[in-house]
Amino acid sequence: MENITSAIRIIPLEHYLFLCLALFSIGVIGVLFRRNTIVILMCIEMMLNSVNLLLAAFSSYRSDPSGQVFVFFIMVVAAAEVAVGLSILVMMKRNVDSIDINLLNKLKD
Amino acid sequence: MFQNSWLILLFPLLGFVITGIFSKKLTGKTSGIIASLMVLASFIYSATLFFQLKQITNSAISVDLFNWINSGKLSISFGFLIDPLSVTMMMIITGVGFLIHLFSMGYMHHDERVNTYFSQLNLFVFSMLLLVMSSNYLLMFVGWEGVGLCSYLLIGFWYKKNAFNNAARKAFIMNRIGDLGFIIGLIAIFTTFHSLDFNTVFSQSSHFISGEAIITFITLMLFVGAIGKSAKIPLFTWLPDAMAGPTPVSALIHAATMVTAGIYLVVRSSSLFVLAPITMDVILVVGVTTALVAAIIAVLQNDIKKVLAYSTVSQLGIMFIALGLGAFSSSLFHVTTHAFFKALLFLGAGSIIHSLQGQQDIRLMGGIRKSMPITFITFFIAVLAISGIPPFSGFFSKDEILAAAFHSSPIVWGLTVITSMLTSFYMFRLLFLVFYGSYRGDSKTFGKIHESPKIMTIPLIILAILAFAGGFLNIPVMFGGTENFATFLKPSITFFNDYNFEIPNHLNEILLALGVLLLIIVTIFVSWYIFVKKSVLPVSDSTNRGIISKFIYRKFYFDEIYNFFIIKPYQWFAEKFTSFIETNIIDSIINGIGSIVVFVGNKARLIQNGNIGFYMFVMIIAMISMIAGIIWLK
């Protein structure tokens, strides 16, 4: 354990921050502008994992393991969420024979 | 025993809840039995309280159940005041109430809503008991409103007939006018005494001198409440209309109990009223006018219940005369005897109406004394009692009032005597027209006339005994009595300092009573001569009447005057308000708000284009700007 923590600390904290910011922004932009629902789901995962990475980094730098415990919880929730999301996706494919998110605009009426 | 006096209230309330909730399931007979038993239980408890109260010397017991309202300076406890006055009223209410419940079981058995009837009757008994038992004005007001509500419900009991609904509404609205006075009185009492509790208010009232303006104002306002509830001029017109309800209701609510609430209020507040001579004069004038006017109207009425209704108004007027004279216990004594004989008269009328299949016009009755002997005899006793023939109860109570009137002013005495003579005239007119002569109604119904069943005649007999013997409760000193009733009530009542409780010269008093008696007997003879010997019948409605006769027959045009001066202008205003303010101002405001909303909605719905990406874009922009805002603010 000790050596993992020290290994994480080799890289300065700012690098983690910038990496995670970049990952998160890519995720946001993907969610906003992609039309493929699978890609959108992947982008959401990317956003979640960028936060996970940040949590792990902070937890090492502050020598507080609870941040890493959080990461596990988030992973579990994310897995459940993906299961739900993918099943919705399957239903969507069956019903409208497409996975284009812009086809789901019935809320308008 | 005294601590648990709330049980008296609980029984009728329970009866109300049970018969009300299970009104779909119970048979009429069961609910009648339940309701009657509940009132009987209350009566037994009240009687026990009465005997216990007689034994103790300090005869005013306050029972505080819990602190009811606590707000700023206002602190009101939910409590009862058990003293001779309230116990007397409780016994009248539950005793007469029980008999009327019994009678109702026979009278209403064919009605389809008999369970509702009994539950409302029990609710009435509950509210009336609350009115007389409460230890402060506010709780009394709750009961006061409760009896008003029950009166409304029961007058309009046969709600399918629109005229009955109108009568119920009229009673309610007329009572509201009085209630407004009562409320103003309550507020004035609170601002003056900083309490609504009877004991506190009355003990503080001794700090005020006689004739002080605020006390006069308070008592006048309370008296306005009494005017409404006790059907005095100018608010008396609801009581004759209230006869639309079932006859036992008229007996219980509009003769024996509710209409005497006004008298109870005045007697209860006697320590305030004695400080306001102006109010006492107003009461006296209103009482005399009402007694006389109602008695005159009653002479020409042709509906058996209307005659009794006007007679009630007139008798209530006599009670108010006694109040105005300061003879509080005499007034309450008349309340008691009146409860007996007037309930008996109404129940007798109910028995007749029941037997004649709903016929109420005395022009279409006559000669039924043979077929209804018990009703006839009991009715006769009641008529003797109300006319003031000794030794029937009415003689004693009326004689006391007459003596008090003679003591203070011969004019009041003279007018009261005239009222008494009119009373005996129209009561005997009623008796002769209904029971003597030959039957004038439909010959088909004549064969069906029958004596009422036992459940109805037994209450009549008991009430007849009470109407006969009720006077012996308070045998005046001049006949060697001890005035038990007045002595018992004395602790609850404050008298004028100069009010002479005992009139020294008994010989004068006896001569006076004999003189009045002679006049009344002459009146009865005149009535007999007109209606039996000459068998004069009241003219039918189509005949032209003389001016005076018409004036009296149309009840002094009271209803027409109210119609012209109050209802018509009110309707005119209502008309104008609907056609102008409603359509032009209120409608345009409401419609304007509506069209603004529609306009904004039409514009705003374009934002919602159904594109999920766009929604999320907006969401993220919003989040970013929020975060930016927070950071910037720091």
Question: How is this structure best described in words?
Answer:
The complex is a heterodimer of chains A (109) and B (634). Chain A is mainly α and 109 residues long. Chain A has a single domain, classed as Helix Hairpins. Chain A has four helices and no strands. In chain A, helix 2 (13-33) runs antiparallel to helix 3 and helix 3 runs antiparallel to helix 4 (66-96). With 634 residues, chain B is mainly alpha-helical. Among the domains of chain B are: 318-540, no CATH class; 557-633, no CATH class. Chain B is globular and about 105 Å long. The model of chain B has no long low-confidence stretch (mean pLDDT 86). Chain A binds chain B through residues 28, 31-33, 35, 101-102, 104-109, and chain B through 608-613, 616-617, 620.
Short recap of the structure:
The complex is a heterodimer of chains A (109) and B (634). By secondary structure, chain A is an all-alpha fold.
Keyword list:
heterodimer; A: 109 residues; mainly alpha; Helix Hairpins; 80% helix; B: 634 residues; two-stranded antiparallel sheet; 2 strands; globular
Write the layout of secondary structure elements.
The complex is a heterodimer of chains A (109) and B (634).
Chain A: H1 2-10, H2 13-33, H3 37-62, H4 66-96
Helix pairs in contact in A: 2-3, 3-4
Chain B: H1 6-21, H2 28-55, E1 61-71, E2 74-82, H3 84-107, H4 114-133, H5 137-155, H6 162-193, H7 198-204, H8 213-229, H9 238-241, H10 247-256, H11 261-268, H12 270-273, H13 277-299, H14 304-324, H15 328-355, H16 373-387, H17 393-408, H18 410-435, H19 443-446, H20 454-469, H21 484-489, H22 506-533, H23 547-553, H24 558-604, H25 612-633
Antiparallel strand pairs in B: 1-2
Largest interface: A-B, 13 and 9 residues
Which structural class do you get from the secondary structure elements of chain B?
Answer: mainly alpha
The biggest beta sheet of chain B reads: 2 strands, antiparallel
Residue windows where pLDDT falls under 50 for at least 5 positions of chain A: none
- The CATH topology name of chain A reads Helix Hairpins
Rg of chain A computed from alpha carbons, rounded to a whole number of angstroms: 18 Å
Shape of chain B: globular
Helical content of chain B (DSSP H or I, runs of 4+):
over 70%
Overall helicity of chain A: over 70%
pLDDT < 50 runs, ≥5 residues of chain B: none
Helix- and strand-based class of chain A?
mainly alpha
Multimer state: heterodimer
